[in-house]
């Protein structure tokens, strides 16, 4: 479950970066970034390492 959480977070951050530089998806990409950050924070709170 932990590795899936980080895979999803990485995919969302990549999607955010692509959308930010392409200016195509607007605020939806920023929502993806927020979801990715929340996923990472939940992993840290649960005591699992980020790396």
What does this structure look like?
The chain is an all-alpha fold. Helices cover 78% and strands 0% of the residues.
Tell me how many strands there are.
0
- Helix/strand order, N-terminal first: HH
Relative helix content: over 70%
Number of helical elements: 2
Proportion of residues in β-strands: under 5%
Largest sheet: none
Distance between the termini: 15 Å
Q: Look at the helices and sheets and give the structural class.
A: mainly alpha
Task: Kindly report the average pLDDT value.
Answer: 76
Low-pLDDT stretches = none
* C-alpha-based Rg, rounded: 12 Å
Overall geometry? elongated
Main attributes of the structure:
51 residues; mainly alpha; 2 helices; 78% helix
Quick structural overview:
The protein is mostly helical. Helices cover 78% and strands 0% of the residues.
